[in-house]
Design a protein that fits this description.
9-stranded mixed β-sheet; homodimer; alpha/beta; 16 helices
C-alpha cells in the first residue's frame, strides 16, 4: 500500500509519440511541430484538464502547454522543437473542481436554480487559487461577494470564462508514468535533394576514366539544377580477383573497370581511394568545392570485401572459412557472388570488427564527409548499426545515414528505429493513385511517422522499374514531380534519369549496359526538357517551405482516377502548394479538384489566387471545386502556389 | 560497449499478448489457448528459428514450444494454460545455420551444383549438434561421410528433413527484452449464465414483500432454466431520507420501498441486511441452497450512501461538505439526486475510506459470496478499484467482479485492464448484422481480447432498449439467442425478460413502473415459450464446449442482411456449433449459409450431419453453401450441432 497517490483520480495512457513503448526516441528536425496525444480519463463527471510538459534534456525548467480534449477521451497538445539534441516530454492531468463548478453553475442558472450556495463555493475556489496577491482574483472575489444578481451576471461574463481558463485549479495531479524522448536533428535530415552519379563516368571527354576533378567541373551543372547532395558510389579500390564484367558477366575482360561495390584490392580498402579517381587531396577538394555550391558529398558505405581486399589477409578471422580452407563468398543458392566476401559478424572477434567498421565511418567524417548512403544495411546485423550510429552520433553532430534498405517492411522500419536518419522506400514501386495515396498515408499517419524519414527515388543504378522501361519522357517527368513534391527528401540516379535511359535487361528491373559494370559516356553539356523541369521543381522546393516537409500532406478529392492532387501547407498557412499530377503519361486528363476548406480555413465565399510555379500561369478560384486539365505532352503536372485572399484569412 | 551480445543478430519486437506494454497481465481462464505472436527478423538470408518459453510463475523449468514464421516476419506459437494463477512467457530466436545450410544444399542439388564441400559442412554441423551420444546424429554423420551419391540422396530424404527440424542449432540466441505475464482464472470467469431478480418481488404470494426464503423457493425454477449465477440488487437497508417513490418520483409515499441502490439507514449500512428480506442467517442459507443447485449468489456492490447511512454521521470526513455545512448530494447539473451521497475519494482520509470499502467486499466473501456485480464502477476512482481488487485477489481465490461500466470505451477498457473479471458491454445496443459483426470482431480480435471479458445483457433493470419497446415475443427471443451464443458470459434481468415487459417511460430506454422503485408481482409459476427456449439454450451451452468460449467465433457468409450466421468450434473440432439468427422479428427469412471449409478442414467432398439442438431436426449437408429458412413465429434461430463425417476428418 505504499506509494499510492490515493487522491489522484485521473488515468493517463497511450501517450504518443512513442516508439516501441519508449525503447527508442521519436525523431523530429529543427522547426518541426510535435503533436502529443494521450488517452486521459477519470471517474464520474468532473472536468479534467491536462498539460503537456517538455524541455530540452539539459534544461532545468519544464515548459507547459495546455492539452485539449478531443473525441473519445483523446487529448492533444503541441510544441515546436527549435534546437538540435534531445528533448523530453510527459503529460500531467488533474480533476479541475473549479472548472467543474463553473460548468455546473452555468447549467444551474440556465435552469433557474438558486445558486447562492454555488457563489460561496466559487469564492472558496477563488481563494484557494489566490496563493499570491492577484488583482484579477481579488476583484473576482469581491464581485462574487457582492449583490446576488450582479454576482450571477458576472460569473456569466466572458471575462470570468477566461479567468477560469487562465487559472487551472491543479490538485492531486497524475503524472504519466514515463518521460519520453525526442531526438531533434538538423534540417537537412528532413529536407534534402540528392543526385547520384558515377565519378568514373564524369569525364567531359567521354572516352576517359572520370576523376574527382571532372566531378568538380560538373558541380555548377548539378548546383544549377538545385541539388544539395551529390552521392557517389564507392570510391575505393575495386577488387581485381573475380572482377565482374559488362552486364554483370562473371569474368571481366582485361581493362574492364568492375563494380565499385566490390571493394578492396592490393591498392587498399575502405579507407583508400581508387587511384584512377584521384587522390585523397582531390576528394577533399571536391568536398570543399561542393560545399561552396551548397552541396554535400555523400559517401557510400558498403561493408563487404572483394577477395583481394587487404582485410582478407590481415583479418581472416573476420570471414567465414569453409572446410577446404577457402573463404565463404556471398551466395543466394544456387546463385554465387564470388566477387564478394561478406564479413562474418558472428566471429569471435566481433568487437574488433565493429570497431574497425566504425573507424571507416569516422575516418571519412574526418575528411569532411557528413552524409553516408549505406549499401544494403539489412545484410549486416541490426545491433551493429544501432551501436555504430549511436557511437558516431556521440562524437559528431549532424551526420546523415541513408539506409538503402530495399527489404521487408519490418526490417526497413527497424533500421529507422535504431538510428538511420533517412531510408529509401517503396515509392519506387507505388505507381497508381490508390497505391500512392495509401503509401503516403501510411508514412505520414502511421506509427513509422515518428522514426522513419522517407527518401523517394524514382530510379537507382540497381532499379529501372517496369513502369519506366521503354517509355518516353512523360512518365519520367511524372515520377520526378511525384518524388520531388510528395517527399521532402528525394533523389535521382542522375544521368540515367535526365537522359531517359529506359532499356532494361529483358524481364528484369535492371539497366541494360549498367553503369555499375562499365564507364558510361554522358553528354554533360546537354540540357533538355527534363533538366529544365528538374531546375524548376528544385527551385520551387527551395522557395516554398510547404515543400520542405513530408508530413504536411493532405490529399484532395478529384474525381478522375488518373489525376492525383494533394495540398502541402505550412502550419500558419503562410505558404501553400497544391500539386496535381496526371498519372497517365500519354493522354490529356481533366477533372475538378476540391480545395480542402477546413485546412485552408476557407469560409463559404472563396477567393484564392493560384499561380502555377512551372508555367507561371495565374488563376483566381472562387469555388470549392475547380477545373484542372493536364496535357502530359505539354506538362503532366501543376505545381500551384496558393494565396488566400486577405479578407478571408 | 558493455553488455552487447555482439553475435546475436536477431531482433524480436511486438510480442503479444501484452497489455499496455506489459503494465498489466493478459487474462486467460483454465483450459484456454494462448497464441503468442512476435515480429522476428534478422539480417540477410539466413534461416531463423524461434521458441516460445513459458511456465507457471513458481515453476523452476521453462517449457518450450516451437514458433512458426507466417507472413511479413510475424511468428506464432501456442500453449494451453491448465492451472489457476500466474504464468510467465517470453520468446527466443536465433539464426539457425544448420537449417540455412540444409535449404541451400537442396537448392544447389536441384541446380546440379557439386556439393562435396557442402557435405563436409553438413558433417561439421552434425558434429556440433552431437554434444551427447546420439545414435540418430551418429548415423547421419556416417551417411554423409560415405559414398557421395548416397550421401546426397540421404540428405534429400524426409528422414533427414525431420532430423533438421528436430535438432535446432541454437547459437547466439536473442531473448526478448521482457518476461510477460498472464493471469489464469477459474473457468467461471469465462463461462457463466446470469439471472437477475429483485428479492423483494420474489414472493409467490404477489402482495407481500419477498424474502430470501422466497428466493430459495425460486431456486429450482432458476436452476431448471440453466442459470448458474443469481444476481440480487443490493440487499442492504434502504435509506428513508429523501427516499424515491414509484417511477423515480422525488418523494416516496408512505409505505413505498425505495430504491435498493439508496443504501443505508438507521437500520445499518453496507454490511447489514434489509430486515424485510430476512436475516444474515437466511442469506447464508440462500447461498448454501443455491450452491447445491450449482448457482452462485452474486452480490451488488454500490459504493454510495443514502443520507441516513451510518457512515454519514460516523465518518462525515468521507463526504464533501458544502459551504452551508450540508453534505454534497450526487448531481449532474441541473439534475439533483438528493437521495444519494457519493463518497469524496479526495478526502484526506482516503486510505481509511479505501480500507473500509475493501472490508465491505471481504465481509461478504466471508459470508460465502464469490461473485460481485459492481454498480457504476466508473464513478469511483480507477486506482481505488485496482488496489481493492488486487488486495482481495491476494487473500481469496476465484472471486468474480463484474463491472457495470456502461460508459465511454476507454474507461470501460481501463476497468478491465486494472482487474475487473467481466464487464457489461455495448451488446445491449448492437442490433443489426453489421453492428453485431463489427462489435464481435472488435472484442475477439482487438487488443481488448487480452483483458476484457464481455458479459452480454439484452436488458437490465436500468435499460429497456428501444428495440425491445412495445415489441412482441420474437425480438426478445432473438436478442436472447444472440446473447447466449455470441458470448459465453451472458445474463438477463429475468422476470421482465421472461414475461416480455416492453413498456418504457415514453421516449427513454427505461422501464415504466420500474421494479427499482416498487415491489412487482410476478407469476413465478408460469412457464411460456420464452422459458422453454431459455432452458433449451442454456442446456445447449452446458452440453456444448464450443458455446463456453467467446473467443472461438467465426462469422459465416450468408447473403441475406437479415440473417446472421456464425460458427463456434473447439480447437480440436470435437464440438462444433453453427448459429443462424433471423434478425427480422416479424418476417420469414431465407438464405444460403457458407460452411467455413478452412476452419472445419473440409475437403472438396462435404458430408456433415447437422442437428438443430432446439427443434431436434436433422439434416445432411453435402454442399459448401446450404439453404436455411427461419420463420420467427416458429423459431427465429437455428442452433445447429455439426458433426463432421469421419472419413473426411
Amino acid at each position: 500500500m505504499i506509494k499510492i497517490k490515493g487522491k489522484s483520480r485521473v488515468v493517463i495512457e497511450n501517450v504518443q509519440p512513442q516508439v516501441e513503448h519508449g525503447l527508442y526516441p521519436a525523431k523530429r528536425t529543427i522547426g518541426e511541430r510535435v503533436d502529443v496525444t494521450a488517452d486521459i480519463f477519470g471517474d464520474g463527471h468532473d472536468h479534467l484538464r491536462a498539460s503537456l510538459l517538455y524541455k530540452k534534456a539539459n534544461a532545468t525548467r519544464w515548459l507547459k502547454v495546455e492539452m485539449k480534449g478531443e473525441i473519445n477521451d483523446s487529448w492533444r497538445g503541441s510544441f515546436y522543437v527549435t534546437e538540435r539534441g534531445q528533448y523530453l516530454f510527459s503529460v500531467t492531468a488533474w480533476v479541475d473542481h473549479f472548472e467543474t463548478w463553473y460548468d455546473g453553475f452555468k447549467k444551474k442558472v440556465a435552469a433557474k436554480v438558486d445558486v447562492r450556495l454555488e457563489l460561496l463555493e466559487g469564492i472558496y475556489f477563488l481563494k484557494v487559487l489566490s496563493t499570491e496577491q492577484d488583482e484579477i482574483l481579488s476583484k473576482a472575489i469581491r464581485n462574487l461577494e457582492g449583490d446576488y444578481d450582479k454576482a450571477v451576471a458576472y460569473v456569466l461574463t466572458t471575462d470570468f470564462a477566461s479567468l477560469v481558463h487562465t487559472y487551472p485549479l491543479i490538485e492531486h495531479e497524475t503524472l504519466y508514468e514515463k518521460t519520453l524522448e525526442i531526438v531533434v536533428e538538423h534540417e537537412k535530415a528532413n529536407f534534402s535533394t540528392w543526385y547520384e552519379l558515377f565519378p568514373r563516368s564524369a569525364s567531359l571527354d567521354g572516352g576517359k576514366h572520370g576523376t574527382f576533378k571532372d566531378v568538380i567541373r560538373l558541380l555548377p551543372r548539378i548546383a544549377s539544377m538545385g541539388f544539395d547532395v551529390l552521392y557517389l558510389p564507392p570510391i575505393h579500390p575495386i577488387g581485381k580477383v573475380n572482377r565482374k564484367g559488362k552486364n554483370n558477366s562473371v569474368n571481366a575482360k582485361p581493362g574492364e573497370p568492375g563494380s565499385p561495390w566490390a571493394i578492396g584490392s592490393d591498392e587498399g580498402g575502405h579507407k583508400s581511394i581508387h587511384s584512377e579517381l584521384g587522390t585523397l587531396v582531390d576528394y577533399k577538394k571536391l568536398i570543399e568545392e561542393a560545399k561552396k555550391q551548397n552541396i554535400d558529398i555523400a559517401l557510400d558505405i558498403a561493408f563487404q570485401c572483394a577477395p583481394d581486399h587487404p582485410y582478407v589477409t590481415e583479418h581472416p578471422e573476420w570471414f567465414k572459412q569453409r572446410p577446404d580452407g577457402s573463404i565463404q563468398y556471398a551466395e543466394n543458392p544456387p546463385k554465387k557472388y564470388q566477387d564478394i566476401y561478406p564479413f562474418n559478424f558472428e566471429t569471435d572477434d566481433w568487437m574488433e570488427l565493429w570497431v574497425e567498421l566504425k573507424s571507416v565511418i569516422t575516418y571519412w567524417i574526418d575528411q569532411g564527409v557528413k552524409i553516408f548512403r549505406v549499401d544494403n544495411p539489412h545484410t549486416k546485423p541490426i545491433p551493429f548499426w544501432q551501436w555504430a550510429i549511436a557511437e558516431v552520433n556521440l562524437e559528431y553532430p549532424d551526420i546523415i545515414f541513408l539506409a538503402e534498405a530495399f527489404t521487408r517492411p519490418k526490417i526497413m522500419s527497424s533500421l529507422a528505429k535504431i538510428g538511420f536518419t533517412q531510408s529509401y522506400t517503396y515509392f519506387t514501386w507505388r505507381v497508381n493513385k490508390q497505391e500512392i495515396t495509401e503509401y503516403m498515408n501510411e508514412l505520414v499517419s502511421g506509427p513509422s511517422r515518428n522514426y522513419f524519414r522517407p527518401n523517394f527515388w524514382p530510379n537507382t543504378p540497381d532499379i529501372l522499374p517496369y513502369h519506366l522501361q521503354h517509355q518516353g519522357e512523360n512518365i519520367f517527368i511524372i515520377r520526378l514531380a511525384l518524388a520531388a513534391t510528395l517527399a521532402s527528401n528525394y533523389g535521382i540516379y542522375g544521368p540515367a534519369y535526365e537522359f531517359y535511359d529506359n532499356v532494361p535487361v529483358t524481364g528484369r528491373e535492371e539497366y541494360f549496359d549498367s553503369e555499375k559494370y562499365e564507364i558510361k559516356r554522358h553528354d554533360w553539356k546537354k540540357t533538355n526538357r527534363m533538366t529544365d523541369i528538374i531546375t524548376l521543381l528544385n527551385g520551387a522546393r527551395k522557395n516554398n517551405d510547404a515543400l520542405q516537409s513530408t508530413w504536411n500532406i493532405q490529399f484532395c478529392a478529384i474525381e478522375n482516377p488518373n489525376l492525383i492532387a494533394f495540398l502541402k501547407a505550412t502550419d500558419d498557412l503562410s505558404n501553400i502548394v497544391l500539386v496535381v499530377v496526371n498519372l497517365e503519361p500519354n493522354e490529356r486528363q481533366s477533372g475538378f479538384v476540391q480545395l480542402p476548406k477546413d485546412r485552408l480555413k476557407l469560409g463559404d465565399r472563396i477567393n484564392v489566387k493560384v499561380r502555377d510555379l512551372i508555367t507561371e500561369e495565374n488563376y483566381t478560384w472562387t469555388q470549392e471545386w475547380n477545373y484542372v486539365e493536364l496535357d502530359p505532352y505539354k506538362m503532366p503536372f501543376h505545381l500551384f502556389n496558393i494565396e488566400l485572399h486577405e479578407s478571408y484569412m
